[in-house]
């Protein structure tokens, strides 16, 4: 395989996708070095080395010995899991009194998230302002 017929453009700042992870797995099994794989895929050698390290898994041979290999599936699972932590922190996250008050209103007083948000606004006891949509979204993350 030659990198001369590689038509991939520079991908600075882009994530690897599953197909590229499959290519990395296949090419690494043939004994190709990470720099050569990087040229073939169109990313940096460091990206490939990082991916090979992240996707390592222990496999069992037929004679019950183990070997360490890269798995595209494991690499993709770890990437997907890490992606779940993206996004801004919840507004309500540090105001524990507000959280407890909203929980009380919804669970004990049987109020809807909209009614609870209105009650919080009227009370003026909390420094955090929160909308009913935020309460719904926060509740969905914990259900």
Kindly summarize this structure in a few lines:
By secondary structure, the protein is mainly α.
Description:
This protein has 143 residues and is mainly α. The chain has two domains: 81 residues, no CATH class; 52 residues, no CATH class. 54% of the residues lie in helices and 7% in strands. The chain contains seven helices and two strands; from the N terminus they run αααββαααα. A hairpin with a 5-residue loop joins strand 1 and strand 2.
Instruction: Summarize the biggest pleated sheet.
Output: 2 strands, antiparallel
Helix content: 40-55%
| Share of residues in strands | 5-15%
> Based on CA inertia axes, which overall geometry fits?
elongated
Mean pLDDT: 86
Class by SSE composition: mainly alpha
In DSSP terms (H or I, runs of 4 or more residues), the helix count works out at: 7
- For the biggest β-sheet, the strand order reads 1-2
Distance between the termini: 50 Å
How many DSSP-defined strands? 2
Count of discrete structural domains? 2
**Uncertain ranges:** none
